Amino acid sequence: MSQTNQKITRQTYLGLLAAALLSFTGILTETSMNVTFPELTKVFNVTLDTVQWITTGYLLMVTIVMATTAFLLKKFKSQTIHLFAAIAFVVGDVMCALSPSFPILMSGRLIQAIATGLSTPLMFHIIFSRIPADRIGSMTGLAGMVISLAPALGSTYGGTISSTMSWRMIFWLILPIIVVSWWLGSHYIRIDPVGTGSFDVLSLGLLAATLFSFVFAVSKAGKYAVLSSQVLIPFVVGLIALGLFIPTPMVIRNCWTSKS
User: Fold this and answer.
1) How crowded is residue 69: how many other Cβ atoms within 10 Å of its Cβ?
2) DSSP, residue by residue, the chain
3) What would the pLDDT profile of 31-48 be if each residue is shown by its tens digit?
4) Cα separations (Å) of 133 from 17, 19, 120?
5) pLDDT at residue number 258
6) Residue 133: its pLDDT value, please?
7) Contact 102, 180 (CB under 8 A)
8) 5: confidence class by pLDDT, cuts 50, 70, 90
9) What percent of the chain has pLDDT over 70?
10) Is 0.90 topped by the overall pTM?
11) CA angle 19, 203, 215 (to 5 degrees)
12) How sure is the predictor about 201, in pLDDT bands with cuts at 50, 70 and 90?
């Protein structure tokens, strides 16, 4: 039977739903805390430019983790990756909900971001691995809706919950969704590793340093002069890391080629 005549199995639908729920919830929390910034500055006695890192840092961590998924999907079963992501999200979520200080809240957000950075590429991996060719377009469109709808709802969700209950309930109320996602994933995600390959740790580190330095420089530009050392130093560090990052993958490939 050709791939275009295949039907999407119930297992595939439910496995995709598991990844979509985890991805949707993770992306929802990206923007849900934005409306709580003024309150959090008072609760934790920190400045507004410090509080904004619970969103900025979250997005940075998501971006960095996404860069590792191509390797992880070759090394581990998709079910294992989903399980790890679900556990990480629960741990980070509980840390945020119970956080007595800003560093604990920030740490919880970064752990949540790891889960989101894993679940979103996993959702697309399931689509391209298990969906027939003639349905891939429609399914990727639905996956795109998940990614675009979640941040649009985030501020409304966060504002409604924080105004009617507490900002901590933003985290407690999404826990049941993660439990459902975990249960579905443990039963219906069945995709084995898809190959072999090495992981370029150096390039990942340089990419992380580049992104963090540039974002940090921009965040300081709102408080200090553009030509001040507080802005220029992280910007220059970012440029140096970027300059080292661009040729690094080619150098490593050449080294491996010469050794073989």
Assistant:
1) 18
2) --GGGPPPPHHHHHHHHHHHHHHHHHHHHHHHTGGGHHHHHHHTT--HHHHTHHHHHHHHHHHHHHTTHHHHHHHS-HHHHHHHHHHHHHHHHHHHHH-SSHHHHHHHHHHHHHHHHHHHHHHHHHHHHHS-GGGHHHHHHHHHHHHHHHHHHHHHHHHHHHHHS-TTHHHHTTHHHHHHHHHHHHHH------------HHHHHHHHHHHHHHHHHHHHHTTS-TTSHHHHHHHHHHHHHHHHHTTHHHHHHHHHHHH-
3) 899 899 999 999 999 988
4) 19, 20, 20
5) 39
6) 85
7) no
8) low
9) 92
10) no
11) 75
12) confident
Q: Which two tokens stand for residue 128?
A: 């391209």
Q: Which two tokens stand for residue 77?
A: 């079963």
What tokens does 10 get?
A: 């119930």
Residue type, 161: I
